[in-house]
Amino acid sequence: MTLAEATASARQALRVAFQQRAVRFGLLGSVLLVLGSLSPAYLPQVSPLTRFMTSLGLDGPISKWTGTVFTMVGLALLLEFWLRIRPARREAQGLPQLRHWAVLVIVGAPMLIAPPIFSHDAYSYAAQGWLLESHLNPYLVGPGTLPGQFADQVAWVWRSTPAPYGPLAIKMSQGLILVAGLDPYWSVVIMRLPALIGVALIGWCTPRIARRFGINPAAASWFVLTNPILVIDFIGGAHNDSLMTGLMVLGIWVTLKYRVWWWGAAIIGVAAAIKQPAFLVAVALPFLIVPWTSWRIRAVAVAAGRSLLSLAVAVAVFVALSLATGLGFGWTNAVNVPGMVDTVSPFTVLGHLIQYPVDALGLDPAGRTVIRTLRSLGLVVAAIGIVWIAVRHLGRRPLHFVSWSFLLFAFCAPAIHSWYVLWGGVLFPVTRPSTRVLRVAIVVTGVLLGYAAMNFALRNDAWMLALLLMWTLWESVRAHELSQNWEDEAPQESLVRS
Asked: Which of 5, 55, 177, 432 could serve as 129's disulfide partner, Cβ 3.0–4.6 Å?
């Protein structure tokens, strides 16, 4: 295909996608989320936008309620849009499948120049880059060490904490703030660039990986690319998890394409230099080429050796990047940072429920012992569960292992954020989920959106609107028949079916 033909094909895909009412719902939802992000609930107290909104008198109760309404309606529209373009639904209506990359371009476009949505992490990225540019090590000091607008934009809870991210992520943040001319606001906006690269990698690799295992690429792209959590957190929130996840699926695709696992393992090492959980994927790569099918001692030893060697390659690349950046391994000082905030992590919630009567009876002077214990228990459950998943799936269905292990960790970790679920979510279609499991996944997506909405509404003193949204999301899910045939009519088989 020539460049002119490719350009014409892309324009046609965008035109067809925009003609769909459901896609326009998604676009409107995205626009409303951008408008809602200008609310006092999610703008830093010190920001050019905050000062501008204040100068217009848009920082009072009316603007808070208006911003909350925009956000709640936007979230509801994004979920409805996602459910309406489900491939099985379009097939039942006799409609052709959409090019989901085109859908994502349309729906995600309004977020490109907006402030971060539903998260302040991008402000931390910029501040950590500013620390490094100022010859301070972000692994040793927090953004508050260097007063100024970069630090002022960071959420209070993170101003004194060191960076937990990989060395390549911090080095990229330094480079990006230089590209932005050291402007504090645009340094934050440009943090979307790595996230967009990650989304592009996910969009390119997901359907190709799916087809390798006989999964309908349209169904896989629908679930992953147009998922409201990906649109909001990877594009709107600019999380560095996006680039990590994109490199993870690239490593998987390279391994499948070229039948050489060490190339994929090297890419996973780069992904881990963005964010360390990517290492888990390296363990599974050799089994994409040669499955492990026997529990005989020799077979187990060979399989373990290949897996450990793959992990060693990834670690070697990670170590090389850590030394090359000059940052070393200081991230080990911050492994507990993500768990410093309370979220709806199941074990944290259970800990609070038990902690309350314990505190009422005066049995715990510290007031957090039960919560800390339950959080530790969650990590133990995750570790045991991952071992069990490995025993059951790693050898024959390595991508089942990767997807379900990441999902288990996301829900058992001390803190859960919606973007954590995307680590395993991008491979979820490859596990061929049943209709029941798919319904659970869609409901969980709605719950995570509702949780983000509640946080937003509480900041704007409008929590009743979030309750209304939760009811709307539930009714939206109930109104759809949530089945999906994952099978591809013309699969390109791999040696091992995952």
From this structure: 177
Provide the residue type at 148 as one letter: G
124, HSE (Cβ side, Cα atoms, 13 Å): 25
- Residue located via tokens 């539903």: 118
pTM: 0.92
Give residue 494's pLDDT band: very low, low, confident or very high (50, 70, 90). very low
Q: What's the CA gap between 16 and 8, in Å, rounded?
A: 12
Determine which of 112-126, 186-200, 301-315 has the lowest per-residue pLDDT on average: 112-126
Binned at pLDDT 50, 70 and 90, residue 497 comes out as: very low
Reply yes or no on whether the pLDDT at 493 is more than 70. Answer: no
Nearest to 36 by CA among 120, 153, 117, 155: 117
pLDDT of amino acid 491: 44
Q: Which amino acid is at 330?
A: G
